Amino acid sequence: MVEYHQMLTTSLPPITLISGVGLLLLAMTARYNHSTNRVRQLLKERNAIAPREDHDLNLEIELIFKRAALLRMSILTVVLSATFSGLQVLTGILECFFDLSFDPIKLGFLLLSSGCLLASTIYFTREVGLSTKAIGLSVHH
Question: How crowded is residue 32: how many other Cβ atoms within 10 Å of its Cβ?
């Protein structure tokens, strides 16, 4: 018979990680939505002054577009992290049901989940740095 306590103990750490990743995903999605809305706004502004060129406006659009690309990669990798955590939970439950040991598989999912979370953090940090650079350009003008 499967012990509920054993399944809960096996599943709790990855589920906690999924919850934390969900909050991170919420913050990233809000930043991504703001970036895409700002690019649309700036493109309308640029179209309104066409055919005249505004170098600063084009630079701002380019920087925000790069930020959105970094955020997209950050969101993708954080979703993959949550997916691997979910697979780790599933593997733990299957392990309890069939009284088998899937430790190498669970370890692999843990490493993949942690690696994706690290990659997401790197992308997010790069986006924040680029955001700071964009603000600096705005302040200096």
Answer: 19
Q: What is the 3-state secondary structure (H, E, C) of the chain?
A: CCCHHHHHHHHHHHHHHHHHHHHHHHHHHHHHHHHHHHHHHHHHHHHHCCCCCCHHHHHHHHHHHHHHHHHHHHHHHHHHHHHHHHHHHHHHHHHHHHCCCCHHHHHHHHHHHHHHHHHHHHHHHHHHHHHHHHHHHHHHC
For residue range 40-91, list pLDDT tens digits in order.
999 999 999 888 888 888 998 999 999 999 999 999 999 999 999 999 999 9
At residue 30, the pLDDT reads: 95
What long-range pairs does 94-97 form, CB within 8 A, spacing at least 24?
95/10, 96/2, 96/3, 96/6, 96/7, 96/10, 97/2
> Above pLDDT 70, what percent of the chain?
97
Within 13 Å of residue 63, how many CA atoms lie on the same side as its CB? 17
